[in-house]
Amino acid sequence: MENSRSNTRKTKIIIICAVLLFSSVIAFWTLSEKPLNNHECFVSITAREMLQSGDWIMPTYNGEPRLQKTPLSYWLVAGLAKVTGKVDEFTTRLPSAVFGILSVAAILYFVNQWLSFRIAILSAAVWATSLGYVRYSHNARPEMVLTFFIMLCFLTFYSAVSTNNRKRQIIYMLVFWISFGLANLAKGPAPLPLVLVPLFFYVAVFRRWKQIPKLLPIIGTVIFLAIILPWPLAIASKLNWNLAVWKREFVDRFFGTYASGGKPLYYYLPKMFQFMLPWAAFVPFALTAPFYRVWNKKQPVMQFLWLWFVVGVAFLTISSGKRQHYIIPMMPAMAILTAVLIEDMAFCRKAYTNKSARNFLFSHLVVLTIGFVALPIIISKVKSEFLTEAILSSAAGLIGILIVAVLFRAGKTSVACWALFVIIAVLVMISYTGFVNPSHYNQPSRKFSQSVSQIVPASDKLIAYKSASGRFIHYFGRRVPKIGTKSEVNELYKKGWWVVAFGIYLDELQDGNSFEIVFIQENAERHRNKVVGGALLHKSGGDPENNI
Predict the structure, then answer these.
(1) Which of 36, 84, 197, 464 is the most exposed place for a label (fewest CB within 10 A)?
(2) Domain encompassing residue 379
(3) 105: in domain
(4) Do 183 and 153 meet the contact criterion of CB atoms below 8 Å apart?
């Protein structure tokens, strides 16, 4: 009996390690290959300037205060750069990849406690293969860090209200309050409504009011404030309490008076399906399943997950300032709900009959088959240069579907599930290597910026006429002041300063002026969804003494 338990424990440890390795491969696959986009450069440039200035309190971006976002992402990247020695694509994206893996580990631990080991494994695998995880574990924006801490808030809260062990309850709530504070440092104040509003509905709907005193409301609030208050107070002191930038970023954005984007009310409806790919077909079932008693002991957990997801999305829906990545902290809840459905369809067959489960899974495979057959045809008409990669992806997908179908039919359900997840991971790797990285629209910008960096001496100064993207500033490696008038640019140019300009601004600058072009690239930068040319200008024989 003891040997049997020991073997079972070893098997579980091996499976857990395999899932973590699996999620790590997905998160780190070609992490540094794709150029940084402008939003990622807000993080990279700010972190780089923190290291250069030594000021870790007042973030700056291209020499200007950067107070639109809370500083945890900047601190993480700057701290890692002290180890790696530079702020490049890998260092900038590393926190997102690491916290993505930690989110998988958290799902494994808590879902195993709530439901079962098998559902925990399926939940982790569904989350690690979803588009939301894949995209934002490869993105330097603070979304994955934020998602981890918000997710940890929900996971620890439910564990705390579900346990009768007071010691465990205290530990869970301490983790909750610390995570809540760190979530707000990652991207405050978004976690305040995204965590508190769903939890309020949970407490109200299930009448958990009597448990509130046990959730460390006083000590927890002190811990929370001790984490989040020092930085904004330090900034407020430096700004003489002129906090208009925070009002605009947090209050005006919510009500749509600042950067609303004009998104429709239903904006997040397609996004929830998009970020659950390739598991999007399960979303409608996951949204209705928690209301059926057939789930028995699983139902309370499913209802909590439902509130986490639906109330969070509903709050974002009423906000006028909508962005697709705002929904990411809710997606782990949908991944767990999806895993509960998959576990029942593939293994238990308690909520779904054999016939309905078989028909659903079969129809899913048919849709995927049609998609893989159509892929090379579509690519040949849209991006013919990637036809070889499309054929390879299509072949891998079709072979994978065949393997999974054969395994399911043979009754080897566990192996079939493993095969399915591995095939999805392989397709993700092929798509990044064959499509996403080579065709990325920021490739020309990286090439142009690095070329300019090699031409302009480190001791010289470079200015940009009217516009310089975060991509250019990051890859150039130094601050690039933006000058808005031709007369001032012309004056500095005559003194020997280097000038860079793009697209219509380059045409405008050259109109009626004789600037010497040192380097020009036809496709150099992306302006308003259009790739434009760029040029580096410099007056030969300029006065070096004035180049200061």
Answers:
(1) 84
(2) 354-436
(3) yes
(4) yes
CA pair distance 234, 221, nearest whole angstrom: 20
Sign of the dihedral defined by the CA atoms of residues 170, 176, 179, 180, in that order: negative
Q: Which residues of 424-443 are buried (b: 16+ CB within 10 A; e: fewer)?
A: bbbbbebbbebbbbeeeebe
Tokens of 206: 């299930």
Q: Among residues 44, 31, 37, 39, which one has the least CA distance to residue 477?
A: 44
Tell me what the mean pLDDT of segment 164-171 comes to: 95
Question: Are the C-beta atoms of residues 158 and 305 closer than 8 Å to each other?
Answer: no
Q: Is residue 280 part of a domain?
A: yes
Out of 17-26, 173-182, 435-444, 529-538, pick the least confident. Answer: 435-444
Dist CA 373 CA 148 (whole Å): 37
Return the H-helix or E-strand segment holding 525.
strand 517-527
Q: Which DSSP helix (H) or strand (E) runs through 370?
A: helix 354-382
Query: Where does a domain end: 303, 332, 348?
Result: 348
Is pTM, for the whole model, over 0.90? yes
CA atoms of 198 and 308, how far apart (whole Å) = 5
